[in-house]
Predict the 3D structure of the following.
Amino acid sequence: MSSSQQLTNKELIELARSASDKTYSPYSHFPVGSAVLTVEGRVFTGCNIENASYGGTICAERTAFVKAVSEGYRKFQTVAVVAAKAYECWPCGLCRQFMSEFGVELDVVVEQSGGSLQSMKLKELLPCRFGPDHLAK
């Protein structure tokens, strides 16, 4: 997709929903999908991938971000999150902290019951984040 074509939040939600079909969640049985839009207009999707050693589990949002960052992208515009079994599935605290590394102006979009969408800035979801500015130089 070229940067001149801008995806709507609804289209990002649909991409996240498709990603949730690929989930590996044999323990929680809680499939989650995510789609992250870079400022350049590229989209990367991710799903949650669980592990019997629960600490090895990775959320859908982090999967999408890791894919994007590993391809050289560092600036993001929007992330959509969908859970197959729940509405308004906001990113967990760990994902919020992880995403904040790349900026707090990120729009986070989730689906509400009835299909309407809700969007918040990451800085609203994580107002007191720990960031690079906190590290001693």
Notes: The first strand starts at residue 32 and ends at 38.
